[in-house]
Amino acid sequence: MSAPVAISCRVTEIRDELFHRRHAVRVRTGPQVLTSERSPTRPIQGRRRTESTQSASAFPGGCEVSVFVSPASSASPASPASSVSSRTASVDALRWPDVATLPRAIRLRTAADERRVWHAVGRLPLRVLLAGGDPIGRGGPLMEVHDPHAFFRRVASGGLTGFGESYMAGEWDAHDLVGVLSVFAEHAATLVPRPRGRRRGVLSPRRPAGHRTYALPYDPPYDPPGELMALFLDETLSYSSALFRGFPAEQHLLAAAQHRKIDRLLDLAGVGAGTQLLEIGTGWGELAIRAALRGARVLTVTLSRQQQELARRRVHEAGLEHRVTVLLRDYRKVLGRYDAIVSVEMIEALGEEHWPQYFMTLDRLLAPGGRVALQTKTMPHDRLPASRTTYAWTRKYISPGGQLPSNEAIEQIVTGCTALRPAERAGFGPHYAETLRLWRERFTQRAADVEAFGFDETTRRMWTFHLAGSEAGFRSGALDVQQVLLTKTKTAP
After folding, report:
1. Residue 312: pLDDT above 60?
2. Counting CB atoms within 10 angstroms of each CB, which of 14, 39, 47, 476 has the fewest?
3. Strand partners, 276
4. What DSSP element (H or E) covers 461?
5. Radius of gyration of the chain from Cα atoms?
6. CA distance 412 to 355
C-alpha cells in the first residue's frame, strides 16, 4: 500500500473509531444481540441531501485512490418552472413539481435548443412521430411525441432528466418503450460525452448547485411502498436480479430463479451449518430465511422499518426466530466478527462518497479466513465521470444519492483500503434484463390495482419508465450485475 493511501485509510479508521465510541452498540457474534440505550443515528444511506463537489483523486470517505477522471466545474442552476403543458392538468403539482410545470424558456433560445435536440436525436436509429405529422428518422422503434413544444422544452432544459419527466407527464409514448430507451442507452457515449470544460452534450446538463431531491410519496430506496412492490415482485419479494437457467424467462419460474441467485451467493460465502452470518440490507427477509435453513445463525440489518416488520413476520412464519435476528440498524454500528457477510445491491444505494467506509466496515466485521459475497449493479469504468456529474433522472426520482460503481472502482478501493482481496467475480446482466421484463409485464398487467391502491398516473408512468429504462440498460450492455467474492486471509488482523 502506498504512503498516501495508508495515511488516508488510517484517517478513516480513526474517524470510524470515534463514530463507534459515540454510538456504541454491543453485539455478540451471531443472532443474540445486546444494544445500548443510545438511539441510533439518522441513516445516511439513500437520504435526500445536498450534493457537493468532490475531488476526483480522493473519496470523501478518506481513502485516496486514483479511480475517477476530474469533472469540470458545476453549471448554474436550472431555470425555474413557469408554465404547464397540455398533458399535465391532472398532475399533482405539490408531489411532482417538475412534471406539472415546464421550465422557463426564452423563445429564441427555445428554438435554438429545439434544433440542437432534434439534431442529436436525428442521428439515432429511431423513428419519431410528432403530433400531426408523419414518422421521420432512420428506422427502428417508434417514439410518438404528443406535445412537441413541451417535449423539446424539457429536454433542452433538463436533458435526460427532462426526457424522463416528459414521459411521466404523458407528453410522449412508445409501444416498444424498452426498444426506444435501448437506443438511447446504446448511444449514451455520444449523447452524454465525457465532461470537457464547459462543453457538454445536449442531453447531459449538470446537477444544479445546491441540488436537493424533490419530496416523493415515500423515501427511496429503502422504503418504497410495500403494496406497490408486491404488485410486480414474486412471492419471495426479492427486489434484485434473479438467476435463470435459460431464456426467455417465464413468470412462473421467477421465484425459483431468485432462490438460485440467493443460493449461489450463500455458496460463494461458504454459508452452512453453524456459520455466523451477517447480512447488510435485509430486503424482505428471503436470503436470511434460506441461510437459516442451511443451519446458519443470521444477523440481518436494515434501515427500513416496514421491511424489518415484514421480515420478522416471515421469519416467525418459517419457525426460524431462534436462528435469525432482524435489526433496524445502520450497518456501521454493528460490532463483532462474522464468518461470512452477504449484501445484495447495497453499494449502489450508498453513493460513492461512502464506498470506502462500506468496504472498511466489511473488513472490520469479517473474521480472519472469512468470506464476503456481494451482488451489485455496475457500469463501465469510463462512464463514471459523466454519470456522477450528470443530473440523472434515476438519481432524482428513484435512488437519491445513489451511484453505480465499476468493477475497477470496487477493486481499487478494496485493495487500497482493506485487508480484503477480490477472489471471484461473475457477471449476468442479461438475467437482470429478463428479471426487469417480468417485473414490467406484471406491473403493466396490474395497472388497475396500482390505481386501486391510491397511486396516481404519474407514479405509474414513473415506475414504468424506471423498469423499462433499467431493462434497456442491461439489454444494451450499458449496465451489468456482478456477484463478487472477497476473502480475508487467516493471518489478517
Report:
1. yes
2. 39
3. 297
4. helix 457-476
5. 23
6. 11
Adjacent-strand bridge partners of 42 = none
Mean pLDDT of 454-469: 95
Strand order across the beta sheet in which 127-130 lies = 136-137, 127-130, 142-145, 172-173
Alpha-carbon distance 10 to 14, whole Å? 6
- Please name the amino acid found at residue 159: G
**Neighbouring-strand partners of residue 137:** 127
Residue 174 CA to its chain's centroid (Å): 25
The interaxial angle of helices 254-268 and 286-293, nearest 10 deg, is 60
Q: How far is residue 346's CA from residue 165's CA, in Å, rounded to a whole number?
A: 26
* C-alpha torsion sign, points 328, 462, 348, 53: negative
Query: Within 13 Å of residue 4, how many CA atoms lie on the same side as its CB?
Result: 6
Phi, psi of 279 (to 5 degrees): -110, 125
CA distance to 77, 299, 404, per residue, from 27 (Å) = 46, 10, 31
Q: Give 402-429 pLDDT, tens digit per residue.
A: 899 999 999 999 999 999 999 999 999 9
Task: Supply the pLDDT for residue 145.
Answer: 94
Task: State the Cα angle at 145 between 141 and 146, rounded to 5°.
Answer: 140
Question: Domains plus CATH for the chain?
Answer: 3-69+219-487 (3.40.50.150), 81-191 (no CATH)
CA distances from 83 to 97, 211, 405, 444 (A): 11, 21, 37, 30
Other beta carbons within 10 Å of 310: 19
- Tell me, rounded to whole angstroms, the distance of Cα 354 from its chain centroid: 14
Tell me if 91 sits within 8 A of 99, measured CB to CB. yes
Which of these ranges, 26-30, 43-47, 160-164, 465-469, has the smallest mean pLDDT?
43-47
CB 57 within 8 A of CB 64: yes
**Exposed, middle or buried, 131 (CB in 10 Å: 0-12/13-18/19+)?**
middle
Residue owning grid cell 451511484: 403
**Closest CA relative to residue 393, chosen from 469, 310, 474:** 469
Buried b / exposed e over 94-119, threshold 16 CB at 10 Å, is eebebbbbbbebeeeebeebbebbbe
Buried (b) or exposed (e) across 330-367, using 16+ Cβ within 10 A?
Answer: bbbbbebebbbbbbbbbbbbbbbbbbbbbbbbbbbbbb
What cell does 362 get? 466489511
Percent of residues in the chain assigned helix, strand, coil, to nearest 5: 40, 15, 45
Going by C-beta distance under 8 Å and a sequence separation of 6 or more, which residues neighbour residue 22? none
Cβ(353)–Cβ(47) below 8 Å: no
